[in-house]
Design a protein that fits this description.
The complex is a heterodimer. By secondary structure, chain A is mostly beta strands. Helix content of chain A is 6%, strand content 39%. Chain B is of the alpha/beta class. The chains are: A mainly beta, B alpha/beta. At the A-B interface, strand 2, strand 4, strand 5 and strand 6 of A face helix 4 and strand 5 of B.
Chain lengths: 136, 378
């Protein structure tokens, strides 16, 4: 098993708060435009396909595959230096969008492109959580 | 009306320093300005357009720079799109000169990245990143995907580092000049898999300057003009979360630059390409159209990108071996100018007439800019 990453808290603003609070409830949320139907991630105050402000939230399945990854061996920043080597990856969700995030719960060397993964959450201060993925 | 052929780079200067703990970045910019103006026979009083970007300059950096140099230019441009900024500045200066907004543009960069011990490649990008995204990590995501999709190997990436080091051996100013082999690259430690230490650019201090003016005025100055034939810019980002990691900004910026220039890829005598990492060169060659997508690995083999090869890349040794003070774009232009003038001694590309220049800013695998120039001897 790779080492645990103690994720630093994300920067919250009112555009992104609902996403992080969803993670706090164990829900991975994507935005859906109420006007044109476009699916959107990362969260924004408006739809960047049609500029409508009518953005709603949909719960994603939390399932996806590794689109690409790297095993990070050097990072002197606090929290990450204790977690070396850790996996940074683009995970492609079943719904389509890709998330840049960490893959945990297995040896870093076991991660492959195409590996099926499922979301997992690490709680943080203030009823939010940081999403990561582990082998499905 | 296109500015192609009507704008020239008249002066160029690369600061020889690679380690300058006793200098400020402003001083390096000032010394570089002195060098580039002397190169073309102009003085500070001739400058009426000022262009700059920097890692430590802040939001009003170009204004502070005007104060530092006691200049009152009539055109200012502090565009900062990452390490490619200075490549874009040449195009912006050309547009401004073509529109009559200024006549003599000075483009400057200076940095003490090495003596300040900046962790450029392996530090966090922002303080609020929960995932530990490093600069090298962004590029490594592209390398991994390229290997998976096209069967590209670490040995092929290493060829790029080996060629850069061989070139640096012919450049007396280069920081790293001891020859290396493919085996040396593969034996160096992993920084962010699949990229090794020797797949990564070095960190140095340094700076440089360019003087851009009209082709007509440049023909009356001290050095042979280098003409701007084509330019293009582009941005690559997450596209709502589903990006093609391998189709980088260079595809769009290169297409525009070559179309404006009316130059075919086969007419290009040398390329200067931002080599933050070996993978950067490989995917840039593909996206600029020097080879097909997926063929970059075989393209860089067999000495093709070395001096004497079909398309010499970064004859100065690039960021992998010569210098990399944080934002390297200005050196791509400077080396292209020196090559097109035939000033490069042992590392001269014989008979160089046309050069392609491409800068990448930001992180290839997450968010980046691209700026391309096609330059030619008058």
């Amino acid at each position: 098993m790779g080492k645990e990453i103690r994720h630093p808290a994300p920067a919250l603003d009112w555009e992104s708060r609902a996403f992080w609070e969803g993670c706090g409830r164990g829900e991975l949320l994507l935005q859906r435009c109420g006007a044109c139907g476009a699916l959107q991630h990362r969260p924004r105050a408006l739809c960047v396909s049609c500029l409508s402000p009518e953005m709603g939230w949909e719960r994603a399945s939390g399932r996806g595959t590794v689109h690409s990854f790297t095993v990070t061996h050097q990072n002197q920043a606090p929290r990450f230096r204790e977690a070396l080597p850790y996996v940074l990856a683009w995970v492609e969700l079943a719904e389509g969008p890709r998330l840049l995030c960490n893959v945990v719960g297995c040896e870093p060397d076991a991660v492959r492109i195409g590996l099926p993964v499922v979301v997992d959450f690490q709680p943080a201060e203030g009823q939010i959580a940081v999403p990561r993925f582990r082998p499905a | 009306m296109s500015l192609s052929g009507k704008i020239a780079i008249a002066g160029a200067f690369e600061h020889p320093t690679r380690w300058a703990p006793e200098k400020t970045e402003w001083q390096i910019m000032g010394e570089s300005a002195r060098g580039a103006l002397a190169d073309c026979g102009l003085t500070l009083r001739d400058v009426d357009g000022l262009f700059a970007a920097g890692m430590g300059m802040g939001a009003m950096g170009v204004v502070q720079l005007a104060e530092y140099l006691n200049l009152k230019p009539r055109h200012l441009d502090g565009t900062n799109i990452g390490g490619s900024s200075f490549v874009a500045h040449v195009a912006h200066a050309g547009a401004a000169i073509h529109a009559g907004l200024c006549e003599v543009a000075l483009i400057l960069y200076g940095s003490t990245a090495a003596s300040n011990a900046l962790a450029i490649g392996t530090g966090l990008r922002t303080g609020a990143d929960p995932y530990g995204v490093t600069t090298v990590g962004g590029y490594a995501l592209v390398a991994q995907r390229h290997m998976h999709r096209h069967g590209t190997t670490s040995e092929q990436l290493a060829e790029i580092a080996v060629a850069a080091r061989r070139h640096a051996g012919l450049n007396p100013d280069a920081k790293m000049r001891r020859p290396i082999t493919v085996e040396d690259v593969l034996a160096s430690r992993i920084i962010s898999h699949p990229l090794h230490l020797l797949d990564c650019c070095i960190i140095s201090d340094g700076g440089g300057a360019l003087v851009v003016t009209s082709a007509a005025r440049a023909r009356d100055l001290a050095k042979p003009p280098v003409l701007l034939l084509g330019c293009g810019e582009a941005v690559w980002h997450q596209e709502l979360g589903a990006p093609d990691l391998l189709a980088i900004a260079a595809r769009q910026s290169g297409e525009r630059a070559f179309a404006m220039a009316g130059v075919a890829r086969g007419d290009v005598d040398l390329a200067t390409i931002y080599d933050s990492f070996t993978i950067t060169v490989l995917v840039t060659l593909e996206n600029l159209g020097f080879c097909k997508p997926g063929e970059g690995g075989s393209f860089v083999e067999g000495g093709r990108i070395g001096l004497g090869g079909e398309l010499p890349v970064n004859p100065d040794g690039g960021g992998l071996s010569s210098n990399h003070p944080g934002m390297r774009g200005i050196f791509l232009v400077i080396e292209a100018v020196r090559q097109l003038r035939g000033e490069c001694g042992e590392r001269q590309v014989a008979g160089a007439r046309i050069a392609a220049v491409h800068g990448t800013g930001g992180l290839l695998g997450t968010l980046h800019s691209g700026a391309t120039l096609v330059l030619a001897r008058d």
